[in-house]
From TrEMBL:
GO cellular component term of the entry, any: plasma membrane
GO function term, MF aspect, one: flavin adenine dinucleotide binding
Keywords attached to this entry: FAD, Flavoprotein, Oxidoreductase
Region of interest (Disordered), residue spans: 1-20
Acyl-CoA dehydrogenase/oxidase N-terminal domain span: 22-131
Cofactor(s) annotated in UniProt: FAD
Cross-referenced Gene3D superfamilies: Acyl-CoA dehydrogenase/oxidase, N-terminal domain, Butyryl-CoA Dehydrogenase, subunit A, domain 2, Butyryl-CoA Dehydrogenase, subunit A, domain 3
PANTHER family: ACYL-COA DEHYDROGENASE (PTHR43292), ACYL-COA DEHYDROGENASE FADE29 (PTHR43292:SF3)
Keyword Oxidoreductase set for record: yes
Protein name, per record: Acyl-CoA dehydrogenase family protein
Pfam family, one: Acyl-CoA_dh_N
Length: 404
């Protein structure tokens, strides 16, 4: 596959006709034959995918029927069931491909636009997300409003046919590469808290928007601070009703914690298999695999990944049966982030004991697991910290009395 291919191409398969095992087999063989070697994070490669290559790759995944699986066909999707989405997520999870550049568009903005957007907004935004013509970022957190999102201060004031936005967002992942921002801004007063908030689909090239990148511990410019100085957003880019932004935001966060990135459970599984295979390639690490201490810890991670996989499958079945996600996404988010962080620390600890000089398999594993380890530090923070998930589980699932 040529990655520099133009984005708006005809679809290269007829995936609508495939189902069940045939769909799984299509996804597996397409990924195996098309994923470029230098995208694979389990191999040593001097070259990293560029933004243009990533955009072309994700657009190709969409043409192959592996993205927008449950979205209606009218908006560029494939109109399939959540169970079929799960099958494809499992296949994506078993490959060592990088996370999507447009996961905010595909997994947060897309579902919320389908829930609260007008027909015109759906036709405008949704195909552009799937075809990778528009990459989205999420402008929720502010310097004084993270866990307590209802404290946010960025203001949106009505001025004729536009909303005038003033304020600052922070930790906005990928804002510097984005064409649109899913912005949560205040239309009422700070004292209104949950009332008087609105969601916007803000074009990132509007005058008055300034983006500064923030370097993260892994040396990447992963997130940004975004300043809005009298930015005029057309009224057609307001999503949902002006005072309904909080309810829409809570739905976004519910989706973020429960059904998006379902592939993570199967990726976790394949990371464990990668660590074990790298250890087997090295005499000292092979010996450690026989050590009861490390066997128990690897076994605990295998158990964690199994729990997570069955949890994802349970949530999918519940949704297919018409039940709502409710607060249950908090259980999956808490379990995945804490368990993955423990596993990443174990991987780094084990690999640090490899024989010298390192063989290629160990070198590749060190490069991959160092990145995973550094990123895992953030996993218990983004999409709601572990303490916030514990609070939600205590209040809404266990209905424990509130502490003082
Ligand atoms: C890698 C990464 C990417 C991110 N990407 C985005 C993005 O794209 N868009 C976006 O809008 N945001 C993003 N965020 C921000 C993220 O949502 C916030 O960091 C998170 O909500 C926590 O907010 P905070 O950093 O302000 O911490 P605070 O809310 O100030 O929390 C500080 C500490 O106090 C604890 N705490 C706070 N309140 C309570 C409570 N009620 N009970 C118990 N403990 C509490 C927290 O658990 C935490 O340990 C990202 C964060 C990271 C790390």
């Amino acid at each position: 596959m040529t990655l520099a291919a133009p984005l708006r191409q005809p679809r290269d398969t007829a995936p609508e006709e495939l189902s069940g095992a045939a769909l799984r087999s299509h996804a597996r063989s397409w990924l195996d034959s098309n994923l470029p070697a230098h995208f694979r994070t389990d191999r040593l490669s001097p070259e990293k995918p560029s933004i243009d290559e990533t955009i072309a790759w994700e657009a190709a995944m969409h043409r192959a029927g592996l993205v927008g699986i449950t979205w209606p066909k009218a908006y560029g999707g494939f109109g399939r069931s959540l169970r079929e989405h799960l099958v494809i997520s499992q296949e994506i999870g078993r490959t060592a491909m990088p996370e999507s550049l447009n996961s905010i568009g595909k997994e947060l903005a897309g579902p919320i636009i389908q829930a609260v957007g007008t027909e015109e907004q759906k036709l405008t935004y949704l195909p552009a997300i799937l075809e990778m013509r528009e990459i989205w970022c999420q402008g929720f957190s502010e310097p004084e409003a993270g866990s307590d999102l209802a404290a946010l201060r960025t203001r949106a004031e009505r001025d004729g046919n536009v909303w005038r936005i003033n304020g600052q967002k922070i930790w906005t992942s990928g804002a510097h590469n984005s064409q649109r921002c899913l912005l949560l801004a205040r239309t009422g007063t700070v004292e209104d808290r949950h009332r008087g908030l609105c969601l916007f689909a803000v074009p990132m090239d509007l005058p008055g928007i300034r983006v500064n990148t923030i370097r993260s511990i892994d040396g990447k410019d992963s997130f940004c601070e975004v300043f809005f100085d009298n930015v005029e957003v057309d009224e057609k880019d307001a999503l949902g009703l002006p005072d309904e932004g909080w309810n829409a935001a809570i739905r976004v966060l519910g989706i973020e914690r429960a059904t998006n990135r379902m592939h993570r459970a199967w990726r976790f599984d394949s990371e464990i298999a990668h660590l074990v295979s790298a250890c087997k390639s090295d005499p000292r690490l092979s010996a450690l695999l026989d050590d009861g201490y490390y066997r128990r810890r690897i076994g605990a991670s295998v158990g964690d990944a199994e729990v997570l996989k069955s949890y994802v499958e349970t949530v999918v079945e519940a949704l297919v049966s018409g039940e709502s996600i409710g607060s249950r996404g908090s259980l999956a988010k808490l379990h995945w982030s804490e368990a993955h962080q423990r596993f990443a620390a174990l991987a780094i600890e084990l690999l640090s004991k490899a024989s010298l000089p390192h063989g290629d398999a160990v070198k590749a594993a060190i490069a991959r697991f160092e990145t995973i380890y550094l990123h895992s530090r953030a996993e218990t923070i983004f999409a709601g910290t572990s303490e916030i998930q514990l609070g939600i589980i205590a209040d809404r699932i266990l209905q424990l009395p509130k502490g003082k």
